[in-house]
Specification:
The complex is a heterodimer.
Chain A lengths: L3 E4 L2 E4 L5 E7 L5 E7 L5 E9 L2 E4 L6 E3 L9 E3 L8 E8 L8 E2 L3 E5 L1
Parallel strand pairs in A: 2-11
Antiparallel strand pairs in A: 1-3, 3-8, 4-5, 4-9, 5-6, 7-8, 9-10, 9-11
Chain B lengths: L3 E3 L4 E4 L4 E7 L6 E7 L6 E7 L2 E5 L2 E6 L4 E6 L8 E8 L6 E2 L3 E6 L1
Parallel strand pairs in B: 2-11
Antiparallel strand pairs in B: 1-3, 3-8, 4-5, 4-9, 6-7, 7-8, 9-10, 9-11
Classes of the chains: A mainly beta, B mainly beta.
Chain lengths: 113, 110
């Protein structure tokens, strides 16, 4: 089955710890994205990557880092510098084309206490 | 002004009703319009995709775009309890930047 997987589904961390969220896709998509969703808010773009070894900041990149060493994988690290890390994190992928449809993974709910 | 505005609801309708969900947007350069359905604690699922103005139909769902008034709509016919979810509209004028509304919560009661 083609799709996007994110792991883990739920993640709990203590304040001050870095944490890495996994995202893998087998859709052969060039572009991958990370969004954050908070209650009552729309999705906000954290980072995106058009191609391996290249990525761009989105609207709310502060306190986050990413890597793109393989086409299939786009892990997101939430660092201790992120002031409000508790949120629902969504990974998406698309073809790299104008207006290409983005497909989402199931999400990771991160709780930091 | 936020680029995409969407009434958060909640919207409650009886089973079998026609549902109308709407968004307005501010940037006339947007050309691509999408509707996503998101069940609680799940990732959004792409429901409808439209380029430029016009209507698109898929089963019980119809997406409508009116670029002159910067208004996009999703109609659901013969609504079912399984349609209960949050519906997100999104717009784009390029390959990467999707602008999302905050989502409308829909409840279809049996």
């Amino acid at each position: 089955d083609g799709g996007i997987t994110q792991s883990p589904k739920y993640l709990f961390r203590k304040e001050g710890q870095n944490v890495t969220l996994s995202c893998e896709q087998n859709l052969n998509h060039d572009a991958m994205y990370w969004y954050r969703q908070d209650p009552g808010q729309g999705l906000r773009l954290i980072y995106y990557s058009q191609i391996v070894n290249d990525f761009q900041k989105g609207d709310i990149a502060e306190g986050y880092s990413v890597s793109r060493e393989k086409k299939e994988s786009f892990p997101l690290t939430v660092t201790s510098a992120q002031k409000n890390p508790t949120a629902f994190y969504l990974c998406a992928s698309s073809a790299w084309d104008w207006g290409a449809e983005q497909y989402f993974g199931p999400g990771t709910r991160l709780t930091v206490t | 002004q936020k680029e995409v505005e969407q009434d958060p609801g909640p919207l409650s309708v009886p089973e079998g009703a026609i549902v109308s969900l709407n968004c307005t947007y501010s940037n006339s350069a947007f050309q691509y319009f999408m509707w996503y359905r998101q069940y609680s604690r799940k990732g959004p699922e792409l429901l409808m995709y439209t380029y430029s103005s016009g209507n698109k139909e898929d089963g019980r769902f119809t997406a409508q775009v009116d670029k002159s008034s910067k208004y996009i709509s999703l109609f659901i016919r013969d609504s079912q309890p399984s349609d209960s979810a949050t519906y997100l509209c999104a717009t784009s004028n390029s390959g990467y930047a999707l602008n999302f509304g905050k989502g409308t919560s829909l409840l279809v009661t049996p």
